[in-house]
Amino acid sequence: VQYSICPYLAWNAVCPLVAKLKRFYEFSLRLENALRSLLEALTSPPYAPMQHLEREQALAKQFAEILHFTLSFDELKMTNPAIQNDFSYYRRTISRNRLNNQQLEAENEVNNEMANRMSLFYAEATPMLKTLSNATTKFVSENKTLPIEDTTDCLSTMACVCRVMLETPEYRCRFTNTDTMLFCMRVMVGVIILYDHVHPVGAFAKTSKIDMKGCIKVLKEQPSNSVEGLLNALRYTTRHLNDDSTSKQIRALLQ
């Protein structure tokens, strides 16, 4: 939005955009709750992670859909700096009006308190992924009677399934369009990042149950324009990539 052309026009242009940003922020809170419910269903005793994924395929699919949406949203957010610029303009305007004891109609939908919460959310490079990472970490810390391996094994199993589907010609030839390939890649990257956030040594260590070298190679075999955002997610939103336990080969693959 061109803020300098006319404050009134700029404000009227920004308000619907801020309302949309609010809906996405509120949706992230719903995703957080949904993810924790899914993790509970997919990790509860007495079944092993693979048994859960086989028995509850519909729930596993919903988990995958959430990750697909999350990575898609964050890719768009990272390539649209106007989101934060417009929101900063909105916050400046309502702050100025509060000092002048004025209240604009739009504040009824996004007041100062909500704007502050939204600002913290959109300040993250990958806000949806950050929400899910925090939710997964919180799930593990709150369920102390549940072995952490139950959660990490669920995530590593999903990563393995996606990698095998992508690298095996017999399975890959069944994909009817590139969207299915992209879906698999986003889910694979999503579960890797969640695994890296909750596992004590992360996804990149030699003891990791995720074949990181294989996963990265699968991504790099695709056209760069379709996977650069996913590779960046692995580079910049994981916790353990720069640990000493990460091999030079894996670091080199992500350079």
From TrEMBL:
One of its GO terms (biological process) is regulation of actin filament polymerization. GO terms for cellular component: membrane. It comes from the Eukaryota. Keywords: Lipoprotein, Membrane. Pfam families: CYRIA-B_Rac1-bd (PF07159). It is found in: Membrane. It is a lipid-anchor. Residues 10-251 form the CYRIA/CYRIB Rac1 binding domain. GO terms for molecular function: small GTPase binding. Belongs to the CYRI family. This is Family with sequence similarity 49 member A, like. It comes from Sander lucioperca (Pike-perch).
